[in-house]
Structure formats: C-alpha cells, structure tokens
Amino acid sequence: MKKEVIGSNQFISMMVLFELGTALVVPIGLESGHAVWLSILLALPGGILLYLIYTDLYSQFPEMIISGYTQKILGKYIGWPLSLLFLPVLMYNGSRNLREAGDLLISASYDKTPIFIINGIMVAAVIYILYMGIEVFARTAEIYFWIIMIMGVISVGVVIIAGLPDLHNLFPIHLREWPEAFRSAYPSIWIFPYGELVCFTTILPLFAHKKNAKKAGIFAICLSAFLLSATHAIEMAVLGLDIYSRTTYPMFTTITLVNVANFIQRLDALVILTLIIDVFFKMTVYCYAAVAIAADLFKIKDVRRIVPPVVVVVLFSSFVSAENYPSHMNDGKVFLKYILPVMCAWIPIFLFIVHQIRRKFGWYK
Question: Residue 225, SS3?
C-alpha cells in the first residue's frame, strides 16, 4: 500500500481546524472571568512547549507513532499497556466532541430529531473519509480551512457593524486578575485545546517536509490561539461575564443578537455550520489517532478494517456516557482535570525525560 504524505499547508489546516473544534463555540477558562481571552494567550507558551516535546520524540523516532516509541523507550512490557490506555481516552474525547455538536444542532434547529440520527450522519462521514485515507482528509482540510476563515470574517464583521461589542466587558485587567487568568490557563486551557495535539503524534510520520514540522506546527498553534482569543474576546464583549458563563454556546448566543438595519438577521446558521465543520475534523483526527494506535499495537496492516469498530464505539459513547448535557459538562470537568493531562502532557514529558537519560548513558541496544 502506498504511503500517504501530507504537505505543509494541509498539515497547518488540519491542526488549526482541530484546535478550533468545540473550543471555538463552548465557554472555556471560566475561572479567569472576563480575562478568558488573556488566559488563552497565557496558555500558548505551554502549548508550544508541549508540541516541541512531541516533535523532538518524533525526530528521534521518525517512522514511529507514539505507541511505537513508547514501547521503544519504556520496553514492551510497560510501553504496550501504557499505549493501550490511549485508545479509550481518544475515543471518549472524540465522543464528547460529537455529543456537543449533536446537542447544539438539537437545541438550535432539530429539536424533533433523535440525537442518534444526527450523530450517526456525522459518524458516517467520518467513516467515509477515513476509508479514503488521511491524505484525502488533509486535502479536504485545506479547502475547509478557508471556508471557516471566510465565515469567521463575515460573523465578526456583522457583530461589529451591529455595534454589539462593549470593550468595558473586557477591560480593565486588574493586577489581582492576572493570577486568576494564569490559573485558568494552566492546566485547563493548556490541555484543552493545546494538549489535545497529542493526536498529531500519529500524523507527524506522514508529514512530507520533516524538517519543517516544528515551524509548521508552531505557526498553526499561534494562529489557533489568536483566533480562539479573538473569538472569545468578542463573545465576552457582547455578552458580558454573567451571560457568557451561563450560556451553553456563547458564540451561538452572540450571533443571534445580530440585527443590522432590520435586514441582516438570523445568522446562526453560520455558527452551526462552523461547529459541524470543526467537530468533523476534530473527531476525525481523534478517530484516526485511535485507529493508528490500535493498528500499531495489534499489528494490523490494513487500518481500514478497524475504522468501523472504533467509530461505532465513538458514536454510542456520545449519547450513553451522560444522561443530559449538564451531566456531560460535569463529567468533562473531571476528565479534563484528572485524566486528559496525564495522557496529553505527563506521559509525553515522562517519555521525553526517560529517552534523554537512556540516550545520554547509551542504554539503548
């Protein structure tokens, strides 16, 4: 089978769409109050540092994904079961993104449609694109990146033209608020969305320009941070802290307030379309990472054979993991605080340290 290759622009597009995901629509970093936009920027250096750890491990083992070099660094008896733990985490997080998209669609337009049907349609698209291959998926991301950018410019433009933003909701940032913004940035925003880039440890071996992996990734992370910070700043400026913290989807609520000369209204379709696109790409990357790790651990040559089982697990997990959306969000707080940091940050950092020690003392065979 021909090895698939991903170009620089495709890689950047995939990473930006993945980073935006649901983080563009749901409220994040509520601990920082109206300085949430600042917390996103404060978490950026930590996100870049994590990515540099991923790329350093990739440069040492360029033909291996994370499950491969985990076994290489820690040995098969420790590395194999540790790598296996990535599978439920990746599939569960993918199912969370799917659930959030389904709930928004139901609350916004499809209140008579079962969530199983809505999520099933999205899952069918994921199965199809993974069957076509990650290279086709990357080319698709390159197209939809510009669609998202155009819709973003339109949405921000009409919000500003409508005169909705109030900068008093963003400033001033008092000295006592900086520690709160920093606590919100680490580990919450540091892990979601920056730490989730651990999925790209399964995609980096397919990158065509290996020497540019660091530059391309850092550029994508910085662009994502700017877009997220600007988006949440606008949402906060329009809604204020009280409404922003209480609403389920601040972006959706913001866009429904647009009314330009009683002519430009009802632009919520742009938000729904943005969420569908971003969730599709984020969930697909999660599913691909789970498929790639499963294929590597169980020595399956044709990865397409395990695409349906993995994606079906994601589908059923999306609506059985929580009884309702508030329970879903509460479960997410526990998951984000205790589980995701271990898989996204502490394990890769541990692998990096152990690898440096083993390489320094020549403990590799």
Answer: helix
Question: What tokens were used for 123?
Answer: 């899952």
Whole-number pLDDT of residue 129: 95
**Residue whose pair of structure tokens reads 């998926």 in the numeric block:** 137
Six-digit token string for 304: 């397409």
Quick one: which of 31, 24, 35, 63 has its CA closest to 252?
A: 24
User: 10-residue block means of pLDDT along the chain (365 residues)?
Assistant: 81 96 81 83 96 95 94 94 96 92 82 88 94 94 96 92 90 81 90 94 92 94 96 92 86 88 78 90 96 95 91 90 79 88 95 92 74
How far apart are the C-alpha atoms of 19 and 7, rounded to whole Å?
18
What residue type is assigned to position 230 of the chain? A
User: pTM for the whole thing?
Assistant: 0.95
Q: Which of 241, 235, 213, 345 is nearest to 32 (CA)?
A: 241
Which residues does 35 contact at the CB level (< 8 Å), separation at least 6? 170, 173, 177, 178, 180, 181, 184
Instruction: Return d(Cα 138, Cα 144) in angstroms, integer.
Output: 10
| Greatest alpha-carbon span in the chain | 73
Alpha-carbon distance of 151 to 236, in angstroms, equals 19
> Where does residue 33 fall: left (phi above 0), alpha (psi -120 to 50 degrees), or beta otherwise?
left
Contact 188, 49 (CB under 8 A): no
Identify the pLDDT of residue 252: 87
Of the CA atoms within 13 Å of residue 125, those in its CB half-sphere come to 17
Positive or negative torsion for Cα 137, 9, 14, 355: positive
Backbone angles phi, psi at 207, to 5 degrees: -70, 130
Beta bridge partners of 9: none
> How crowded is residue 92: how many other Cβ atoms within 10 Å of its Cβ?
20
CB atoms within 10 A of CB 81: 13
**63 CB-contact burial (10 Å; exposed 0-12 / middle 13-18 / buried 19+):** exposed
Confidence (pLDDT) at 1? 45
Tell me the two tokens of residue 281.
């790409």
**CB contact at 8 A, 184 and 36:** yes
Amino acid at position 351, single letter = L
Task: Please give the single-letter amino acid code of residue 207.
Answer: F
